[in-house]
Each structure stands twice: as structure tokens, then as C-alpha cells.
């Protein structure tokens, strides 16, 4: 390992278009989240490098003053005051900052803080599909405040990309039909942007969509800037419509690899060689149009060519020419351009990406400040340590943790506190940031993402038990937690969220969401683990019971939205884990030579009963409604029923079949009311029926036949419309506490 000059790293930092200190932007947070305190908290800028803050008592009584070296640091200073002094917090499930007491709590002695890294990053390219695909600006506004307060200063900003790309392609002679042949549907744009897929199996991407997203992007970018963030914007990647090759017969354009078994019509995207002059021309057109559309607001560009795509050649000279052509095209337009790359390829295609090839690819960008690599899955499969700290390129320690936005409590707090600090101090380390790169954001695991961003402001690793308890206190709007709550969170924090098992370092998938089968579902490890790495009966079950007892003793707890959410979330997980036991019992009965059809039916009944209870539980909380996902999608239809049906299909298909014929079915599964009852439970009932049939007829269960039926069932589900039945509701139903009470009686 070599020692890297701090000057080298500092030069990357200067690549940021650090917004001038924006006190008005910071006041915006107060006006939105704690308007009753408007005018009582002031912000001022301090000289100095890096990101640091001081929070003091203000000059007049009942005021607080936050001083900082950057807008982002002031936002973090405000958050530190609100959480540590004010005892309030903001969550993905909602902001509770308005609960801050009046008059403002006093700052008895100044509170200081400083970031240990220049960059705090957030998002994965696919978060824009799995989580925010259908968001409106109100939903963005909550997340952007959440990010700003935690000190994020480098977010990805993909929304509206197509509104720049499409006019660019038109300028090169492509027709509307040729472009439509390339663009994917609204729920699948991230994978089109990655060059994994092309085209849309639901019909062409509507112009209205592209226009609406451009309007949304302007709002998002304006907010990011006023919150002191430097957005990472897209660039031209080289992926082009097929017809580009016809228009430019002499340009080097080749079909890429197949992605996840999609038919060629939807994958094998055409790739224009970055060494071609045409590539540089298109890049110039794209970036110029992007500057016209959003302003000259950043030097950071997200650009991935090999995310689950195989390079055309493994030749190191070829890889070097791709990288140098790509960077040259960016720097020709923006001399300070920084190429930001998701480092997933180095793990996912590790056999291809040998050290030699990585070095050739990254080394072809000799300017040390021209690239920023996201070590995407650093919490479990770090690549910086096998690449000599990315051969000197600055990189960000990222937590991936979630695939597809599926639910499943999991996390490794001790490691996300220690890992980044260790990596920062490793010999020759060129680490410059920490960040979250979850595919989907699910609020049950919000703790681990907040924790990593909090660690960015602490030189020493944070203390897990202390962290978890203080957070629970804020979450439940308490001055201090009761013994029951303390014990519940101490169990959860030190087991489920301190999972050290190297085989299950990812959101644990429940088999409920997977296509039913007699084998191959349980005990999976790796990136889609179904193995539960803790003892449910010794950990989760007592924790749920403790939460239950806590609200029996203190009924006022029920009024805290995050308490109700946690009770539902832990109970959801308990049912999901119980289901695994019931499933194993069913498989045992089925495989016995002496069991009868009646035995199988008896063993199968509890699975179906449990799913009915799960559906009823999820219906009680607004965070678990499939109808909300559908509602969010269809509101973009402007009342056009045809467009609404198209959007609803997109929304359903992503969560279910993910592709026209179940190419990666259930990858983005969700334990949400409406999906559990309307889809997963229907599949499991069909499975139990098929097993009973097999016993009755004395034939073996026919897995091929069953999966064909499941595909049909998925297709039928995907083409339904929510609310076509008069008694389907869009909102919550039932009382969480009643439902949890009866579940605890039945299943513990
Ligand atoms: C760091 O690496 C350099 C160069 O290989 C070496 O000289 C130095 O001893 C190392 N320092 C530590 C603390 O390992
Ligand atoms: C508070 O008073 C000090 C000393 O008079 C002054 O320098 C500072 O600017 C004031 N701060 C604010 C926030 O008004
Ligand atoms: C392609 O190259 C051939 C041979 O050099 C040349 O005759 C032809 O004009 C070129 N076509 C285009 C569209 O540039
Ligand atoms: C698509 O990619 C696969 C490799 O992943 C390749 O075998 C196949 O020939 C490609 N098809 C086309 C039409 O390019
Ligand atoms: C943006 O930067 C380009 C040069 O990269 C310049 O030509 C253009 O005028 C700038 N646009 C704005 C709106 O500042
Ligand atoms: C990098 O670190 C990970 C996690 O600690 C470890 O599993 C892996 O073996 C290390 N790789 C190398 C090349 O040291
Ligand atoms: C962590 O915090 C807990 C609870 O506040 C405390 O009891 C414990 O001593 C702390 N551990 C360390 C290593 O500081
Ligand atoms: C998982 O594997 C363990 C041992 O490897 C076994 O005891 C257990 O029964 C398996 N669980 C399931 C649900 O298959
Ligand atoms: C409704 O949406 C469909 C599908 O996007 C579109 O073809 C049609 O023109 C729209 N109708 C109106 C009246 O806007
Ligand atoms: C299983 O079902 C498939 C599809 O229905 C059928 O083609 C196949 O013959 C069946 N296999 C057996 C062993 O019955
Ligand atoms: C839903 O409505 C239909 C038709 O009105 C009715 O037959 C059915 O019983 C209702 N189902 C429920 C669960 O209320
Ligand atoms: C866990 O507890 C449940 C209910 O209390 C019981 O049915 C089940 O057998 C227990 N599981 C294990 C693995 O002990």
C-alpha cells in the first residue's frame, strides 16, 4: 500500500461545486418541519475547510445559533441539536421534529461536530426504480430533509434523465419510433439507464411521463442545492437505440450482453464505443442540453457501463480505451468533471474483473481527481482491500444492504460503525466518503442507513447499545425509555441489528414472497439470504412481547407513530419467521411415504391462516399498503384511464413478475397488504392444494406445471386494476393494537 498525499484527496474535494453558504435554505428546513420555531434558530458561516459546526445558545433568550463551515455542516449541526438536546427526530415514516418543545431547549455548553470524510453519499441508481419511481415532490421533500439533516452532501439525481437523452438522440437523426424502441417503462428506467434492458413490454414510454419528470427534477435539484448538496447528474453512457447502428454504419456500435435471461428484444443493448468521435459528440450534446435544462450545478457525473453487463473484450488495452474515451468526453465539456462509478461490477463479476483489468480500466484515467468509485457493498464484500484502495482513486465506503426493496429486518451495526473508521485509517487509504447504496429503502431497516451517516460525524466508532437506546427514546417521543422498551431494543440491537454472520449480510428475504416450491427456498445464504441468522424465539419473540407490554403499561405510547410502526414491523417479522417453521413442517408431512392427503391439508392450513393474519396486520398501517404504491403511480396519469392502467401495470409488474414473463420474478417483493393477501397467499393456497392433489392421485408434485400456473397467476394479477372492486379500500383498515394482540395469542 502506498501513502497518499492528503493534498491529492483535497483536490477531489475541490471538484465539488460547493454552494455558497445558504442560510435561507437552512431556514427552509425549520419552516417545513418545525414552523413554530421559525426565527428562533440562526445560521452563520465560519471560516475553515471541511465540514464542521458549533451549536450555541443564541444572543437573545430562547434562541439557538448554529455556525458552520458549510451549509451541509450547519444542517448536521441543527440535527445534532434537535436530536441530542431536543430529543426529536425525523424518519422515513414521517418527521416528528414539530414535537420539539417550546421554548427551545437550552444549549448548556457549545456542541461541536465535524465530518470525518468530505463526502456523505446516498442512493443507488436503482433506488430510483425500487423506491422513488412514482414519488411526487412532497415525498422527495421529506427524504431530502432527512438526508440534509444527517449531513449528506453528495446525492445522486437521476430523475428526468430521459428529458435530456431523448432530444439528444433526436439531434443525431433518430426517429421517435427508433427512440421508443429503446426506452423502458416508468418502473424500469434505472435498468435502461444501466444498459441492462431496452424497450418496454407495457407499451412505449409516454411523453407526458418524460415531461412530468423534468418538472419534478427541477424541484428536486433546487432543493438539493439550497440544502448544501452537490447533485451527481447523469451523463451519456454509450447505450443507444439499435437504429443508431443503421444511421452510423461506420461507427463502432456493438450489441452488449444478455441481462438475466430477458429475450433479446429487451436486452443486449447496443453500445457505442467511447473511443469513437461520435461518442464525444453525443456527450457534448447531452451535457450541453443538461446544463441548459438544470444549470451548471455540478461537476459530478454518474456513469456505469458495466453494471451487470459484460465488456465486449477482456483485453486490457480495450478496457483502457473505453475508460479514457469516456473521461475525455466528459472533460472536453466540463474540465473539472468527476466520473462517479458504482463499484458493483468488481464484486458481481469478480472473475472477469481481475486486478489487472481493474487497474487497466481505472488507470486509464490518470488524473487522480477525475474519478470517484463507490465501494458499493463495502459492509460485506469490500473491494478496496483487493484493489490497493482502487489503485489510488478516491472511493466511498458504501452500505448496500438491501436488494429489490424487499422487507426483512437485518443489519450489522457494529461493523458499519467500525468498518468505515478502519478503512479510513488503513495504510494508503484513499477513502473520501461514506454512503448508502441500498437498492430500495424500506423503513423497517432505516436504522442502519441513518447509523452509517451518523458515523460520518464521529471519529470513534459509535456505541451500538447507546445508539439504539437513544434512538428509541426519540422515536417514541419519550424522555427516557421504560425498562420494557430498553430490554426490547437491547435485544433487537444486539442480535438482529448486530448480525455478524458473514453469509447473511443483506436484508433477509422471507420465503412468503418467493414462488412456492418443495425445495430450494430455505437456508439460502449470500445476496438473497433466507437463512435467519438469529434465534427467533430467543430474540424477536420476546422483543415483540416487550413492546406489547410497554404499551399496556403506558397507553400513551400508542400515539407515537413510530411505536405503532415498530410494533407492526416486529410482528410482521415474527409471522414471517413462523411461516418458515410451518413450511418446513408441511414439507416434512408431504415427503413422508405414509402421510395422507388429509395430513397434508392439515399441515398446509396454518400457512394460509398465518398469511391471512399477516394481511390483516399490514392493512392497519399506512407504511404497508400496496394500494399506496398503485395510487402513487396512477396519480401521474392526469385522470387518463388508459395511461392509469399502463402505470398500474408497471407498478405491479416490478413487484411481481419483473419482466414480461417473470424473468426475475419476486426480486422486488414486498410484504404489503394487498400483495400478501391478493398474490402471495393465493400462490401458497394453490401450492397447498397442488400438494393435496398430488397425495390424492398418488402422483408426484409437478413443479414445472405448478410454475407455469404461477406465471399465469402473476400475469392475471399484473393486469388487474386496484379499486375495480367496490369494497377494496385505498387506505388502512383495522387497529394495529387489536390485530397484534390477537396475533400474539395465536402465534406465540
Ligand atoms: C504503510 O505502507 C508503507 C509503504 O508500503 C510502509 O512503508 C509503512 O510502513 C506502512 N505503514 C504501516 C503503519 O503499516
Ligand atoms: C451574537 O453577538 C456576537 C457578539 O456581539 C456577535 O459577534 C454575533 O454576530 C451575534 N450572533 C448572532 C447570531 O446574532
Ligand atoms: C463509411 O465508410 C466507407 C468506407 O470508408 C465510406 O465509403 C462511407 O462513406 C462511410 N459512410 C458514412 C456514413 O460515413
Ligand atoms: C446477447 O448476449 C448474449 C451474451 O450475454 C449472447 O450470447 C447473445 O448472442 C447476444 N445476442 C445478441 C442478439 O446480441
Ligand atoms: C455552463 O457552462 C458552459 C461551459 O461548460 C458555458 O458555456 C455555459 O454558458 C454555462 N451555462 C450557464 C447557464 O451558466
Ligand atoms: C477484504 O475484506 C473482506 C472483509 O473483511 C475479506 O473478506 C476479504 O478477504 C478481504 N480481501 C482481501 C483481498 O484482503
Ligand atoms: C456503550 O453504551 C452503553 C449504554 O450507554 C454503556 O453501558 C457501555 O459501557 C458503552 N460501551 C462502551 C464500550 O463504551
Ligand atoms: C437450515 O439448516 C440447518 C442446519 O444447516 C438445519 O438444522 C435447519 O433445519 C435448516 N432449516 C430449514 C428451514 O431448512
Ligand atoms: C391517454 O393515455 C394514453 C396512453 O399514454 C395516450 O395514448 C392517450 O393519448 C391519452 N389520452 C389523452 C386524451 O390524453
Ligand atoms: C408436468 O407438467 C408439465 C406441464 O404441464 C408436463 O409437460 C409434464 O409432462 C408433467 N410431468 C409429469 C411427470 O407429469
Ligand atoms: C365485496 O363486494 C362484493 C360485491 O358487492 C360482495 O359480494 C362481497 O361479499 C364483498 N366482499 C367483502 C369481503 O366484503
Ligand atoms: C418457537 O415458539 C413457537 C411458539 O411459541 C413454537 O411453536 C415453536 O416450536 C418454537 N420454535 C422453536 C424452533 O423452538
Automatic annotation (TrEMBL):
Domain Alpha-N-acetylglucosaminidase C-terminal: 472-745
Superkingdom of the source species: Eukaryota
InterPro entries on file: Hex-like_dom2 (IPR029018), NAGLU (IPR007781), NAGLU_C (IPR024732), NAGLU_N (IPR024240), NAGLU_tim-barrel (IPR024733)
Domain Alpha-N-acetylglucosaminidase N-terminal: 25-105
One of the Pfam families matching this protein, by short name: NAGLU_C
GO molecular function per UniProt: hydrolase activity
Span of the signal peptide: 1-15
Alpha-N-acetylglucosaminidase tim-barrel domain sequence ranges: 120-458
Keywords assigned by UniProt, alphabetized: Hydrolase, Signal
Protein name: Glycoside hydrolase family 89 protein
Lineage, opening ranks: Eukaryota, Fungi, Dikarya, Basidiomycota, Agaricomycotina
Amino acid at each position: 500500500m502506498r501513502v497518499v498525499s492528503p493534498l491529492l484527496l483535497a483536490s477531489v474535494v475541490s471538484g465539488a461545486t460547493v454552494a455558497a453558504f445558504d442560510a435561507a435554505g437552512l431556514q427552509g428546513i425549520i419552516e417545513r418541519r418545525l414552523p413554530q420555531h421559525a426565527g428562533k434558530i440562526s445560521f452563520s458561516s465560519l471560516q475553515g475547510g471541511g465540514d464542521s459546526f458549533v451549536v450555541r445558545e443564541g444572543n437573545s433568550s430562547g434562541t439557538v445559533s448554529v455556525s458552520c463551515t458549510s451549509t451541509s455542516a450547519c444542517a448536521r449541526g441543527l440535527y445534532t441539536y434537535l436530536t441530542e438536546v431536543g430529543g426529536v427526530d425525523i424518519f422515513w415514516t414521517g418527521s416528528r421534529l414539530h414535537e420539539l418543545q417550546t421554548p427551545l431547549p437550552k444549549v448548556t455548553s457549545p456542541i461541536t461536530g465535524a465530518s470525518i470524510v468530505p463526502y456523505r453519499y446516498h442512493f443507488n441508481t436503482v433506488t430510483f426504480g425500487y423506491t422513488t419511481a412514482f414519488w411526487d415532490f412532497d415525498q422527495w421533500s421529506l427524504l431530502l430533509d432527512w438526508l440534509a439533516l444527517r449531513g449528506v452532501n453528495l446525492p445522486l439525481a437521476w430523475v428526468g434523465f430521459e428529458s435530456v437523452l431523448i432530444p439528444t438522440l433526436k439531434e443525431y437523426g433518430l426517429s421517435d419510433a427508433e427512440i421508443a424502441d429503446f426506452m423502458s417503462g416508468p418502473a424500469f428506467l434505472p435498468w435502461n439507464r444501466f444498459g441492462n434492458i431496452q424497450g418496454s413490454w407495457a407499451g412505449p414510454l409516454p411523453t407526458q411521463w418524460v415531461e412530468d419528470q423534468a418538472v419534478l427534477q427541477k424541484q428536486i435539484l433546487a432543493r438539493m442545492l439550497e440544502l448544501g448538496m452537490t447533485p451527481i447528474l447523469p451523463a451519456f453512457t454509450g447505450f443507444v437505440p439499435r437504429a443508431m447502428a443503421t444511421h452510423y454504419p461506420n461507427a463502432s456500435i456493438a450489441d452488449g450482453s444478455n441481462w438475466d435471461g430477458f429475450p433479446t428484444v429487451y436486452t443486449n443493448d447496443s453500445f457505442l464505443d467511447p473511443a469513437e468521435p461520435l461518442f464525444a459528440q453525443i456527450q457534448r450534446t447531452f451535457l450541453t442540453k443538461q446544463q441548459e435544462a438544470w444549470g451548471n450545478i455540478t461537476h459530478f457525473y454518474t456513469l456505469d457501463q458495466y453494471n451487470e453487463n459484460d465488456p465486449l473484450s477482456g483485453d486490457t488495452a480495450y478496457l483502457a480505451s473505453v475508460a479514457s474515451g469516456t473521461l475525455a468526453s466528459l472533460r472536453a465539456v466540463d474540465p473539472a468533471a468527476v466520473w462517479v462509478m458504482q463499484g458493483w461490477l468488481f464484486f458481481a463479476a469478480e472473475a472477469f474483473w481481475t486486478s489487472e483489468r481493474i487497474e487497466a480500466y481505472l488507470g486509464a484515467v490518470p488524473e487522480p481527481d477525475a474519478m470517484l468509485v463507490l465501494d458499493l457493498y463495502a459492509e460485506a464484500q469490500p473491494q478496496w482491500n483487493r484493489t490497493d484502495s482502487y489503485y489510488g482513486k478516491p472511493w466511498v465506503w458504501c452500505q448496500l444492504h438491501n436488494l429489490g426493496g424487499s422487507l426483512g429486518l437485518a443489519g450489522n451495526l457494529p461493523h458499519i460503525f467500525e468498518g468505515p473508521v478502519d478503512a479510513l485509517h488503513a495504510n494508503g487509504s484513499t477513502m473520501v466518503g461514506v454512503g448508502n447504496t441500498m437498492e430500495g429503502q424500506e423503513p423497517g431497516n432505516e436504522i442502519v442507513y441513518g447509523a452509517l451517516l451518523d458515523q460520518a460525524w464521529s471519529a470513534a466508532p459509535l456505541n451500538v447499545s447507546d445508539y439504539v437506546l437513544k434512538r428509541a427514546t426519540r422515536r417514541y417521543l419519550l424522555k427516557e425509555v421504560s425498562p420494557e422498551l430498553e430490554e426490547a431494543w437491547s435485544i433487537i440491537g444486539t442480535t438482529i441489528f448486530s448480525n455478524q454472520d458473514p453469509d447473511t449480510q443483506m436484508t433477509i428475504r422471507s420465503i412468503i414472497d418467493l414462488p412456492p416450491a418443495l425445495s430450494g427456498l430455505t437456508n439460502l445464504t449470500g445476496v438473497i439470504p433466507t437463512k435467519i441468522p438469529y434465534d427467533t424465539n430467543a430474540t424477536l419473540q420476546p422483543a415483540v412481547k416487550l413492546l406489547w407490554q410497554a404499551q399496556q403499561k403506558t397507553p400513551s405510547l400508542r400515539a407515537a407513530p413510530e411505536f405503532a410502526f415498530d410494533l407492526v414491523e416486529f410482528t410482521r417479522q415474527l409471522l414471517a419467521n413462523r411461516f418458515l417453521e410451518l413450511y418446513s413442517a408441511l414439507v416434512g408431512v408431504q415427503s413422508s411415504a405414509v402421510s395422507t392427503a388429509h395430513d397434508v391439508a392439515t399441515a398446509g392450513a396454518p400457512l394460509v391462516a398465518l398469511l391471512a393474519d399477516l394481511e390483516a396486520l399490514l392493512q392497519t398501517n399506512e407504511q404497508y399498503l400496496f394500494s399506496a404504491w398503485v395510487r402513487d403511480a396512477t396519480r401521474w396519469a392526469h385522470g387518463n384511464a388508459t395511461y392509469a392502467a399502463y402505470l398500474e401495470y408497471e407498478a405491479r409488474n416490478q413487484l411481481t413478475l419483473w419482466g414480461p414473463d417473470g424473468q426475475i420474478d419476486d426480486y422486488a417483493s414486498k410484504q404489503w397488504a394487498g400483495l400478501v393477501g391478493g398474490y402471495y397467499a393465493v400462490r401458497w393456497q394453490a401450492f397447498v392444494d397442488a400438494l393435496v392433489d398430488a397425495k390424492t392421485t398418488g402422483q408426484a408434485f409437478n413443479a414445472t406445471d405448478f410454475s407455469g400456473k404461477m406465471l399465469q397467476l402473476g400475469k392475471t394479477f399484473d393486469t388487474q386494476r386496484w379499486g375495480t372492486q367496490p369494497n377494496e379500500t385505498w387506505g388502512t383498515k383495522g387497529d394495529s393494537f387489536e390485530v397484534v394482540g390477537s396475533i400474539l395469542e395465536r402465534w406465540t
